[in-house]
Amino acid sequence: MKDKKTVITYGTYDMLHEGHMRLLKRAKALGDYLIVGVTDENYDRSRGKLNVVQSTKKRMKAIESLDFVDKVILETHKNQKVEDIKKYDVDIFAIGDDWAGFFDYLSEYTHVEYLPRTEGISSTQLREKFDLIKMGIVGLGRDTQAFIDAAEFVSNVKVNRIYSPDFLAVKKFTKNSKTVKYGHDNYDEFLDTSISAVYIDTKLTEHYKLIKRAIEAGKHVLCENPLALDKNELKELLMLAKKRKVLLLSALKTAFLPAFNQLLKEINSGVIGEVKEVRATRTSLYKEKDYPDSFMQQGATNILSSYPSLLVNKVLGKSKNLTFFDQGEDGYDVSNLIISKHKDGAIGVSRVATGIKSEGDAVISGTKGYIYIPAPWWLTKKFYIRFEDEHKSQVFNYEFEGRGLRYMIAEFASLIQRGKRKSKMLTPSDMIGINRVLLEYNERKLKEKKSKKAKGSR
Ligand code: CTP
Q1: Pocket mutation for ligand 1, best pick of 98, 113, 115, 156 (most atoms within 8 Å of C-beta)
Q2: Closest ligand 1 atom, CA of 117?
């Protein structure tokens, strides 16, 4: 006979309240040793819980400070409950009766107990006291409607205004939209309203000045990449955001996907050994006319490189050296191969093309094994960790609906609510590293153009 009875329970415990306390005490009373699993933010988001106010660290600390709790663990994935029950030799799994029936499958491994829930209080209720983040949309770009639709899933965000200099387009948009009812064709007037944040989706050449004015007006900014087309401008914007204490974030949705963050965690745990090469491809058959922005006509790198650069940068860190191989047609690069050198001799291989179609997958190669992300890797849902011994291989699967924008909006809103001005998922130095590829490419193209001109006039 065991002399100690072990009880386990799980929850998010956002803004620890009386209901949580009572449940935890009831759980402890069932045995002698209480283990509490606190749900990780990334896992919560992957389950559709997008509006948790406190960070994982804060929520864990709150539970750790309770003297009747004996052990606190982090819950990061779906099958963990079974693993934990076996690992800790758990006698009772306890949970509130709002989950009645849901965890019956665990009775195969342990005794399952549903405990009465406290009426009249919940984290959801407490969250209602927080102000809604009102957001305005700047521009009428390709992703505008998708952004508005995704924001509907993030309950602490409300998108209710739009700005575009095109008066008629704005009028038409607000007339047809169910949620965005206020339209503006004057940027200053738009910034002067009660919105606290903006999402910018316009021509790339306009990003810098639109971001700058929004920051100066004290608004948090989420903007499609690249934020600026010049190194100094990008640094200036990041400095300005810091000075004005607002959040400035690139809308690189991959960076915020639950599967992508799980992938980075696996790599950091050393499961594939030392990473020596990251290879990522992104191709899309755009025509020049899809990008009327004259700047864009210089090549595939401008349109598509941000995503491969994100993966390379996140896994290998800053690049020391960049080499480009271009395939051009009429002065426009239909394809670019970008090779970057990193710390300890690691290599990044980014392939982007608008005139060639290829498989959009990614492979991260290490000294012990590799990770394969099938196409489209930038909408990371599934990835495989593989080894020479195929029996050791693992699959990670995080299905999600929509285009993955909701996780980015959830992170943006959470950071604002927590008073944070940087995202760990996409730091200012990540943003600089990612844009370096694009900025160096454009500098080089400009030089080439100039020297061609000089030769021509000789
Ligand atoms: N719980 C409870 N009484 C409440 C609220 C929660 O007994 N009034 C229990 C839940 O049944 C669960 C645990 O506390 O066993 C953790 O629940 P969690 O989902 O973190 O708390 P909620 O307040 O229900 O959060 P939300 O409103 O976000 O669903």
Answers
A1: 98
A2: 7
The model scores a pTM over 0.85:
yes
* C-alpha dihedral sign at 284, 289, 293, 297: positive
Ligand 1 atom at shortest distance from the alpha carbon of 12: 20
Query: What are the tens digits of pLDDT across the range 291-319?
Result: 666 666 678 998 899 999 999 999 999 99
Strands (E), 284-434: 321-329, 332-341, 347-353, 362-366, 369-373, 382-387, 394-397
Backbone angles phi, psi at 94, to 5 degrees: -120, 145
Fold of 6-125: Rossmann fold (3.40.50)
Yes or no: say if 277 and 350 are a contact pair by the CB < 8 Å rule: no
**For residue range 99-136, what is the model confidence (pLDDT) as tens digits?**
999 999 999 999 999 999 999 999 999 998 888 999 99
To test the pocket of ligand 1, the residue of 13, 14, 17, 20 to mutate (highest count of ligand atoms within 8 Å of its CB) is 20
The domain 255-401: what is its CATH number? 3.30.360.10
Residue 121 Cα: closest atom of ligand 1: 8
Choose the residue to mutate in 23, 54, 59 for probing ligand 1, maximizing ligand atoms within 8 Å of C-beta. 23
By the 8 A CB rule, do 352 and 312 touch?
A: no
Q: Which of 93, 112, 121, 116 is CA-nearest to residue 13?
A: 121
Contact 182, 193 (CB under 8 A): yes
Atom of ligand 1 at shortest range from CA of 95: 15
Cα 2 to Cα 91: distance, rounded to the nearest angstrom: 10
Instruction: Provide the CATH topology of domain 130-251.
Output: Rossmann fold (3.40.50)
